[in-house]
Amino acid sequence: MRRVKRVPPLSTRLPHLGKRIPLQLSKMPKVTVPKRPTSAGLMASLFLLSLVVAAPLRAQTSNQTSTTAPSPSMPTAQPSTSAPPPPQQNSSPQAPPATTQPATQAPANAAVPTTGQQPTTPSLPNQDQPTETIKVQVNEVNLIFTVTDKKGKFITGLKRENFGLLDDGRPPSAVVQFTQQTNLPLRVGIMLDTSSSIRQRFQFEQDSAVEFLLQILHRNDRAFVEGFDIQTDLAQDFTNNVDLLNEGIRKLRPGGGTALFDALYRTCKDQMLTLRETGAVRRAIILVSDGDDNYSRVQESDAIKMCQRADTIVYSISTNISPSKDKGDDVLKAISEATGGQAFYPIKLEDVAIGFRNIEEELRSQYHLVYRPADLRMDGSFRTIYLQATDPRYHVRAQKGYFAPRPPQ
Q: Taking the model in full, what pTM does it have?
């Protein structure tokens, strides 16, 4: 057993503080070493001593650097952290207060993003928000209707209190909006019968359809052109360009059988029901046909229901110019009345253009009513609409009903 020499008290000078810090070590206990004594024990003690001395220094330097180090709200001070401190700050004790002045000004500068990192981090999540938008279904009914007198003249200027309304047998819970001579944007479809039965008068129908589009389309309106026989031919999709619509009408050629119900069903389903509009619009189809159907798979009632689901008014212009009406004329009347439209029966070929002009006048003389049903159930059932003017001299023409929405999937 050998004894280790006792280490005397030490004092260490901190050169940058100009002080002496006396440090005393307790007596070292006797330890047993397997071999001859070395200076390892003395070196270990000195190492421990240096740690004790350096601890307050590190604490002071960390406090100094924390005043100048940038916080998360100070992005403009980040580039200066990699640079060493100025020499004059270490040479005099007045240097630390000088370094704290930029730190007090940094929050004011941090309010204005000067680096490229600050504005991008909060803006990126906001740009992705539309993909997580929650859709809220509003239970409101948009009703477009027309008022005429007994002679068929359009009546405008009426007020909300001039009408009585029942939705599925009950008054509405609230009337949200009532507009006279509405200028809601139009979404119009021209459906021309291209079967072989109308071959001789087809060109005149084309001319009348083009003239109608020239008069009816305004800036926010859109229209499409379609021909049908046993199949449908979408000659021009929705557009505001009358030249393109004219080209589409001219491309149609008559020939084949007639699948009227199939064409109307498919058109309302594919063209009208799929419309995605940011605001309310008026949907209307101008159906030019003789009403005869000899090739459809769906029934007349199915085509009417699809028009009602798509909130589409159907105006019919019969191409039957014989003195007597036939079954096809009754079909056109049933479709038009069920959807809130009207059927026109030209006496001679030139009257087809008159039918288009009457539709144009009606589209500019309509009323728009928005209301909330009293007991709307989200079950997809059909709900009837009964709208009548309080003045018995006036006749109201509106759709017979609508299908309630189903719960969102």
A: 0.67
